[in-house]
Design brief:
This protein has 440 residues and is α/β, with parallel strands linked by helices. The chain is 29% helix and 21% strand. The protein binds iron/sulfur cluster (SF4) (2 copies).
Length: 440
């Protein structure tokens, strides 16, 4: 797999400060729609709920509970715009003051099956989308079978390697570095449970070797048998298929993109932080980390907020730019430009704010067949062809050219002299194919 080196677009944020805890926002939105379908609301308008109360439940008991990230009164259930450009039904909560994060008695010394079920009940959501939720993904075949009745591929594969991904995903990002720098003790607390659940013969923590976490953390992890590996953080080495190949030499089959198929499980270090915290004091995984950066003003701030906090109060706290020209949630290469500042953030994320003179406006041109996009594609695709096929509505032809293998890294667009919006074209093609499947 080829890795294209891209220069940092902005000055490195350097050593990140600890995240600030923001006061609760006026409203919190907890989407019922997500990657596994729609959960059924468990609350009604006017009802008052405690922090951590169940507000949504999927029919499939193997899917995570949706919980209130703050105590509050249920204003209603309404449609919201999500940061990835979708619409979702969401429970709207009006928080009742700033309470402590929701917690419950931590599962002490639980056996793997009970622990896996406890994590599902706790409602672990994750930063990246995965084919299965976190508790199922990291279970050994025996635990997956007993806890979740999952016996087919990929769950019958033993997990040889469990990777804790502490690499920030793109230039300018510092969410994972912050976890390792300031919240790493919780990651240490998570290791025994991760080993018990996965039965992995090898647990690896990867971190940015140009910004290693303190020696104390690495020593504590090594004492627990974790292989700590500093990697050169060259984009897109933190994206799962690329990372798995860098660490294990194995290629993750596409388009399933499930590392379990090759005996590997990957979890984000932000999830390991939440897991360690849950096991230590019972704090439910309902708080997320949000980075706000404005490269023009050199601003880099990190906040801890309840999951479901809309963009607006986070941007206001950062005072990133009173009249930003563009807000991108998900970072410069993987993110989505926002039009609605009420869009709720439900997982740890990177928000980039651009001022008017940072935004380049242009009309993209036809592909000039220069071929620059081909050698940079880590998935060995023909981005030029995919872009054209999606542009002209030839979605089935794009599918035949492995459209679903694209990991939307954005490198093809980064190098394109015709400024073609490759990722947008490819995402459009993928969505059209999904819609056609739903209709047929
Ligand atoms: S966005 Fe997709 S097609 Fe473009 S370089 Fe990345 S993986 Fe390849
Ligand atoms: S880099 Fe842009 S112009 Fe060149 S082949 Fe790829 S899509 Fe076409």
């Amino acid at each position: 797999m080829k890795l294209a080196k891209i220069a940092l677009i902005a000055a490195s944020p350097g050593s990140p400060p600890p995240p600030d805890v923001l006061p609760h926002p006026e409203k919190i939105f907890i989407p019922l729609d997500g990657p596994w379908g729609r959960a059924e609301a468990q609350v009604a308008p006017g009802q008052t709920v405690e922090a951590g109360a169940v507000v949504g439940r999927f029919q499939d008991p193997r899917l995570p509970m949706l919980r209130a990230s703050a105590a509050g009164s249920v204003e209603g259930i309404r449609t919201v715009n999500t940061p990835d450009g979708q619409k979702a039904q969401a429970v709207v909560l009006q928080p009742l003051g700033d309470g402590a994060p929701a917690s419950q008695a931590p599962p002490q010394g639980a056996a793997p099956v009970a622990l896996a079920k406890a994590l599902t009940e706790a409602g672990f959501a994750e930063t990246d989308r995965h084919p299965w939720p976190f508790p199922a993904r990291i279970c050994s075949p025996e635990t997956a079978s007993e806890a979740f009745q999952l016996t087919d591929a990929p769950f019958h594969n033993p997990i040889e390697t469990l990777i804790i991904n502490g690499l920030d995903r793109q230039p300018g990002e510092m969410v994972r570095r912050t976890v390792l720098g300031h919240l790493g003790s919780f990651v240490v607390q998570a290791v025994a449970a991760l080993k018990a659940l996965s039965q992995a013969s090898r647990v690896v923590l990867v971190y940015d070797r140009s910004a290693p976490p303190g020696g104390e953390l690495l020593r504590s992890l090594q004492e627990q048998g974790v292989d700590c590996r500093g990697l050169e953080n060259v984009y897109p080495s933190a994206l799962t298929p690329v990372l798995v190949q860098l660490v294990t030499g194995k290629q993750v089959p596409q388009p399933a993109s499930d590392p379990r198929l090759v005996g590997v499980a990957v979890i984000d270090v932000t999830t390991a932080w939440q897991l360690g915290r849950f096991l230590t004091d019972g704090t439910l995984p309902l708080e997320i980390l949000v980075q706000v950066s404005s490269w023009k003003s050199g601003l880099h701030r990190l906040y801890r907020v309840p999951a479901g906090t809309p963009l607006e109060p986070i941007l206001a706290a950062a005072n990133a730019a009173p009249q930003p020209a563009k807000i991108v949630v998900g970072g410069p290469l993987l993110g989505y430009a926002q039009f609605d500042r009420q869009a709720p953030l439900v997982a740890s994320d990177f928000v980039l704010v651009q001022q008017p003179d940072e935004v380049h406006t242009y009309n993209y041109r036809a592909c000039i067949n220069c071929g620059h996009c081909v050698p940079v594609c880590p998935m060995k695709l023909l981005p030029n062809e995919l872009g054209k096929l999606c542009e002209y509505g030839r979605f089935h032809d794009a599918e035949a050219q492995y459209l679903a293998h694209c990991i939307e890294c954005g490198l093809c667009a980064f190098v394109c002299p015709a400024k073609r919006p490759m990722v947008q074209l490819i995402r459009h093609g993928k969505r059209e194919i999904l819609e056609m499947r739903k209709e047929s």
